[in-house]
Amino acid sequence: MAEPTSCCVEPGGYCARVDTLFNLAGVHVLGVVWRDRSSKVAFGLGLTVESHPADTGCPGCGVIAVGHGRRLRRLHDIPAFGAPVELVWRQRRYRCAEPACPVSGFSEDHPLAPAQAKLTARAAWWAISCIQRDNASVASVARRLGVDWHTVWDAIAPLLASWPTTLHVWLGLRCSVSTSTSGTTAPSLGRGGRRRCQIFCVSSGHLV
Predict the structure, then answer these.
(1) In this prediction, what percent of the chain has a pLDDT beyond 70?
(2) Angle at alpha carbon of residue 11, lines to 7 and 13, rounded to 5°
(3) Fewer Cβ within 10 Å of end Cβ, the chain: N or C?
């Protein structure tokens, strides 16, 4: 019996099996590379991704926009196979075809990551889950993601600040800084001028 020769290609040139492993609806993997510790680039898994093609309306007037190239965005995703994962997102650029519209060009908006973010949206929530459920520190989560402390904090602080107080209690979390026990503020400076973050368990009053 001949060996299977299917290259697992969906209509449009995407691989269904790799997309299943990546597991993010509406995003397709175009390339995969493994970077070992001896390489000059960051160790881990490198993925090139793009969103599924679809008509996009101009945010200013609603007219269907015209494709206008790509912008390459580097993002850090949830670790996989014991290593950090870096994405190169081929983010679509558009221009409005309506001459009277004040919006000349814009980038696609996708749940993969907010504007200006360095972590994917799911990586930010994964970091919060590790801190809350596994008693992990922000620094240890940052090491697993292959980023620095500040990158993780900048991603999770707005999410924590947006939670209502009742949700904080339900999750057993209160985000605070230094010795403060209420509210969410910018990190304070510790030894050596390093910022620090502490997360408290509301039920026990202990640091996690």
Answers:
(1) 71
(2) 55
(3) N
